Automatic annotation (TrEMBL):
Its main location: membrane. InterPro entries: DoxX, DoxX-like_oxidoreductase. The chain crosses the membrane at residues 16-35, 69-97, 143-163. Belongs to the DoxX family. It is found in: Cell membrane. This is DoxX family protein. It comes from Mariniflexile litorale. Keywords: Cell membrane, Membrane, Transmembrane, Transmembrane helix. GO terms for cellular component: plasma membrane. It is a multi-pass membrane protein. Pfam families: DoxX.
């Protein structure tokens, strides 16, 4: 049990210079997650219809909207990051892949008609030019980006410029 507690709430080491980078990353990703989760607050247990149980949809809203706030403040960064990364992973697996969204959708001709065209010979799962998916999102790029950022923050923590660091430092005094 000590290991899980340390993994979710334990101290991560970083220097001041790296902490500035982590602060910028937390602010941008946190704001993006808030904006990503904001529309879901209108129907927190039914925004995805019957695709998922209501409680899982609520957890997704909490991890996006609440997790975004936590990242901005730098509080419970590993826990907030874990929730966000799980939510984005589920979104990629259950929302983007079934709709055959590529990882990247490149705007070439500014045409949003159809499923999209091959792009420079890349496999269709990787990149498509123009078009859109049946779900309307078009690509898994943003979900993948949030997933990777959240996963990195889970492992490295929020840095020196976070409430996690301040509270830990204050507790040690």
């Amino acid at each position: 049990m000590r290991t899980i507690s340390n993994l979710l709430f334990g101290e991560r080491k970083s220097n001041n210079f790296a902490s500035i980078g982590l602060l910028i990353l937390r602010l941008i990703a946190g704001f993006g997650l808030i904006i990503h989760g904001l529309p879901k607050l209108a129907a927190p247990m039914s925004f995805a219809g019957d695709a998922f149980p209501g409680i899982l949809q609520l957890l997704a809203v909490i991890s996006e909207f609440g997790g975004g706030i936590a990242l901005i403040l730098g509080i419970f960064v590993p826990l907030a990051s874990l929730g966000a990364s799980i939510t984005m992973f589920v979104g990629i697996i259950f929302m983007h892949i079934p709709f055959k969204d590529p990882i990247y959708r490149i705007t070439v001709k500014y045409s949003f008609e159809g499923d999209g065209d091959p792009f420079f010979g890349f496999p269709l799962w990787l990149a498509k030019a123009d078009g859109h998916s049946a779900a309307g999102s078009g690509s898994a790029e943003l979900a993948l980006l949030y997933f990777i950022i959240a996963l990195c923050l889970f492992f490295v923590g929020g840095g020196h410029y976070s409430l996690d660091h301040y509270l830990r430092f204050r507790k040690q005094k």
